[in-house]
TrEMBL record:
DNA-binding region listed in the record: 13-32
GO molecular function, one term: DNA-binding transcription factor activity
Gene source species: Actinomadura rudentiformis
Residue ranges of every copy of the HTH tetR-type domain listed in the record: 1-50
InterPro entries: BetI_C (IPR039538), Homeodomain-like_sf (IPR009057), HTH-type_TetR-like_transc_reg (IPR050109), HTH_TetR (IPR001647), Tet_transcr_reg_TetR-rel_C_sf (IPR036271)
Record key words, sorted: DNA-binding, Repressor, Transcription, Transcription regulation
UniProt-recorded name of the protein: TetR/AcrR family transcriptional regulator
Pfam families, sorted: TetR_C_6, TetR_N
Keyword presence, Repressor: yes
Lineage: Bacteria, Bacillati, Actinomycetota, Actinomycetes, Streptosporangiales
SUPFAM superfamilies: Homeodomain-like (SSF46689), Tetracyclin repressor-like, C-terminal domain (SSF48498)
Amino acid sequence: MECLVDLGWSGTSTTEVARRAGVSRGAQQHHYPTKMVLVAAALEHMLEAQRLAYETAFAILPPERRNVEGALDLLWEVFRGRPAKALLELAVAARTDEELRPLCRDLNERVLEVILETFERLFPSTSLPADFVPTILRGIFAMLVGLSVQNALDDDRDGHQAAVLAQVKSVARLIIPDPGVTAAASPERERPT
């Protein structure tokens, strides 16, 4: 992961990974004989680590932040983190690397599966149509990928990414009320008389 983030796909080599890991080249090759085998193992590790980190971070949020806004804030943190940058590097590199492409072909779908499974665990009782959640999460995922690319370039120097995220959270609050708040108990917009 560190090599992918610091050096990119083209600069990542098994020799550099072994050096950074503090293991001999022979030991590295014994466990991971090729760069693709090493990257495949790293990919699996990063996906699982991201899921566990997100769920743990959500679980320790104060109760008043265990809502859709808190979930989106944490998801944005995940997308700006080093593991997500490494996954993004792999996805971009796979576009032109014939050997890497099969490994990464379903990367987006796998990340989306984790996001959807996590959402369903965190917000089990929504009244949303069954096909709405996967579609809206796919849209949020695509938006966060794009924002994370911008963030990698400018670290949100002008606050544009924060503004987009604030708007998304405003809409999400309307769609997914805080846990424990029923639709009948949530404030309704005043209707003209």
